[in-house]
Amino acid sequence: MGKQNRNLLHSYSSKHEATSTEEPLLAEEDEIPKEDDEPIWTSAVATNSALEHSFHGASLQTEAFMSEITPSSASSPTECPSSAKEPLLADEEGENTETAEVDQAVQSDGVKKKPFISPEYRLAISHFTRIFSYTGRNDRLMLLAAAVASILTGITLPLMNVVFGELVGEFSAFYNPDSGETKEAFIHAINRNVIYMLCLFVVRLFLDYVAVLGFRMVSIRISATMRLAYLNSLFRQPISVLDTLPSGQTAAIITITANILQLGISEKLSMFIQSMSLTISALMIAFYYNWLLALVTCSGLIFILASYPYTVPRLVEGLKQVEEADRASSSVASEAFSSIRMITACEATDKMAKKYAAWVQESKRRGLLMSSVVAIQQAPVFFAIHARTFSLSFWFAIKLYLDHEISNVRTMIMSAFSSGVSSSSVTDPLAAF
């Protein structure tokens, strides 16, 4: 047994020595590549880049891909490709997108147009009329009915002044001994005019209800349609554009814009149509009764129209600044609520609260700066309505009555009241937009 074990051990050692001599573990010194020689990976890449591989008959071009990963020299084999040097920060991507938008605005004739986010484009009349393109057939019918109801609502107030003038005329004729009007005729005229006024009140109530309801429903449907269109357009943008938007800005823009649309269509547009119809109908009634008195009292309208073009642009600019501050505060609040855990873990709650409070105070400060503009806007309006229109109208009407250019008091009241109403109502459509 001992002899057999020695023979097996000897045969195993001889086989191991033969294997080690046939397959050396380390390479010879002459097989190690020198520094002056070309690296192995360079030669392999150069060989592969010159070939066009095919897979099931389709050729695969690998030259462009290999050229990026091929090192420029043997001393720097790990040099980054050009694609790795592109900016990854959101600020840099935002600058690139803005530059691309501006470059696209440059036409072939060399004239550089303003980008679509310019304030001049937002204030265009075509953009206001484009709002109604988001309506359907039923919405347009409802909008038409509401507009007609608003026009008729505006006409009812001058008609009430006409009925009131008839009542004043009946009273003055009854108590005039030279008129010869009996008591029965006086009572009949009073009852008739009271019924007219009651009917005008019921008609005005119904028409005003239809107008407000119609514009309110249309404003809700338009704002909902525009929300959906805004989100569809936003989701079609590249990811790089979405990353440049601050947190919460999209929700703030949608909310503020929808509120402005609903308020502008439901209240301001209805007020605009009613005021314009009231002004036109009142001026027509005033000129019908006495054109000279109506022409004198129209000076208040000219004074109001001359003062508004100076104050309205500054008021709109102040409103936009307040809106920007509100949007920034909404963005800060949305960002804080979305990452409340991280803010609490980093003990940054006080910092975010101070940041939000700073924007709220800035919005308050900008709103207070508008008070002077509103005062400058409203002071000439009330001066023109009370001092110029009503006072001047009654003074000039009494002068015409004493000079026997007006036959009765009814004409004086109709012209004066109609001119005063038209002057006071013209401020509503100007302030609506």
CA-atom Rg in angstroms: 42 Å
> What is the residue-averaged pLDDT?
71
The assembly state of the depicted protein chains is: single chain
Beta-strand content: under 5%
CATH architecture of the largest domain: Up-down Bundle
According to CATH, what is the class of the largest domain? Mainly Alpha
Strand order in space, largest sheet: 1-2
Descriptive report:
This protein has 433 residues and is mainly alpha-helical. It folds into two domains: 39-69, no CATH class; 131-432, ABC transporter type 1, transmembrane domain (ABC transporter transmembrane region fold). Helices cover 77% and strands 1% of the residues. The chain has 16 helices and two strands. A two-stranded antiparallel sheet has the order 1-2. α7 runs parallel beside α10, α10 packs antiparallel against α11 and α11 (291-297) runs parallel beside α15 (409-425). The longest helix has 54 residues, at 349-402. The protein is elongated, with a radius of gyration of 42 Å. The N and C termini lie far apart (116 Å).
